Amino acid sequence: MRPERIVAALLLALGAVAAAQEQPPLTHGLTAVEPYPAPELVLEDMDDDAVDLASLRGNVVVINFWATWCPPCRREMPSLERMHQAIGAQGVSVLAVNVGEDFETVFGFLGAVDPSPTFPVLFDRDGAALQRWGVRGLPTTFIVDPAGRVVARAIGGREFDHPELMQRLSALAGN
Q1: What angle do CA 28, 29, 34 make, to 5 degrees?
Q2: I need a surface site. Which of 22, 44, 60, 69 has the fewest CB within 10 A?
Q3: Would residue 105 count as lying in a domain?
C-alpha cells in the first residue's frame, strides 16, 4: 500500500475515534406511559427457536428494538447485558429485537460486544413487529410489567446498567 493511502486510512480512523468520543452520553431515563396491553411478540432467536413474550408473563421484560448500523444501539448493547447480569435473576428479562438484518451481520456484531449478550436476540426480518409495536426510530425500548402491560418506553440510547434505571426495573418486578 502506498504511504499516502496509509496516512489517509489513519486519518480516517482517528476521525472516527474522535467522532465517537464526541457523542453525548447515553441517558438513563424512561418515559412512563398509560399502561396498555403489550402487542404480540413471537420471533425466532439466534437458534431459530420461537420466543414468545407471553411466556415471560410474571417478569418485567425490557424489549429493545435495535440494528447493528445504529450508533446508539451499538453503544447501549453492553449496558443491556450488564443490567441483565445484575438484575436478571430478580425477575427482569431482556429481549433484543434486531430489525431487518441477517444472521451473519448480527452474529458478527455480537461477537465484538463486551460483555457478549446472554439474553435472547430475536429477528424481526420483515418489520412486522416493528410496525405492531409502533416503533418509529431506533433504538426504541419498551418496558412490560409482570401483568403484560407496556408501562414505559425509551426512544434513543440508554445506559441500562445505570443504578437508577436498574432500581426502577427491580421495583417494578417487586424487589
Answers
A1: 150
A2: 22
A3: yes
Write the CATH number for 140: 3.40.30.10
Residue 17: inside a domain: no
**The three cell numbers locating residue 170:** 427491580
Contact at 8 Å (CB) between 153 and 31?
Answer: yes
Residue-by-residue pLDDT tens, the chain, 175 positions: 454 554 444 334 444 444 445 677 788 899 999 999 999 999 999 999 999 999 999 999 999 999 999 999 999 999 999 999 999 999 999 999 999 999 999 999 999 999 999 999 999 999 999 999 999 999 999 999 999 999 999 999 999 999 999 999 999 999 8
